[in-house]
Amino acid sequence: MLLSFAVSSLRSRAKSVLLTFLSLLISISVLLSVEHIRLQAEASFNRTVSGVDLIVGAPSGQMNLMLYSIFRMGSPTNNVEYDSFEMLENNEQVSWAIPIALGDSHHGYRVLGTNQTYFDQYKYGNKQHLAFADGEPFKGIFDTVIGAEVAKKLGYKVGDKIVIAHGTGAVSFTNHDQSPFNITGILAPTGTPVDKTVHVSLAGIEAMHLAPSQLKDILANPDDFSNPLVQPDSVTAVLLGLKSKFATFTLQRALNNYEDDRLMAILPGVAMAELWKMMGTVENILRVISVLILVSSLFGLSTMLLASMQQREKEIAVLRILGAGAGVVFLLILTEALVIAVSASVVSLGLVTSIFAGAKGWLASEYGLFLSANVFNTHSAMVIGAVVVATLITSLLPAIDAYRSAIHSRL
Asked: What global pTM score does this model have?
């Protein structure tokens, strides 16, 4: 009865109610979108690499090691000797070891030297293996596999040749023009830094840095990986997968105390949690902005209800004659506010879901953001609950005003 009367009352003031509804709809949609993107970004961030138990590099701090080995950001301070990589590869506790060699680029995209183990064992997301959208892994010294974004942005396809530049900047004065690489494969999109990486073999990294006279011999036989000239003497970092998770801390301690080379082993999960914690400030700023927008809209709702009080004096007096107490009038105002807020929340959920469902493909292809369209989760329920509570609080003032008017109302 009270609900139907509240709906009828709102219909009689359709224009002002519609504007208030739209204001709330926008603010709640922004709040839900920010919260959904934040949660999805955190999940995507934590899915950048999966199944790696230890990351080994030269001592430079776990954040720096994580940034350049996984996110291709920053620069390593030193390298790990190739003998150390072989020691790790042959360790009885290690299931697989992926070498990583950095230091070059192609049009600003990082070039990563590695071996076949990278394509066999590297996983992201929910332990998903890398997949090829086209082509196959590199076989020759001057073959390369490029990420999905590199292929799309630069318009490359399998069979094209690219020239790698020395250094990691977008612009370089030293290009390895004498040793162009042939694209043999393009990886499927992953939504991770892999999409922005140019992959070559470790031998390829060594070969393109050779003197022209030595490079000539390698170019003459580009499939000879046994040539001493292309044997690596160091790598930038090593990703390790262990046979048993219980050996993680034991091996980490042993590597940190390794005497034949300066090594540092870190747990990727711990480093990523620490890195995400540093980004908490941006998260909080987005939340504060969203909450301020919502509060502004709720005050608009309260103002609309207050402004209508004078126009509703006769309506309240009629209610009193019909036997409605002052408390009923008080509840009627709160019900009207809740009807607007709950309606705006429900429409917001549908609107945000539709937007994310429609833009899902575009966000993935343009920005590498793999967002789920499903916003119906515990956090959304908490946001809607907070909106309802805030609506009740901000509606108390017009409700109390209506309550007092009801007590003193006369026909």
From this structure: 0.73
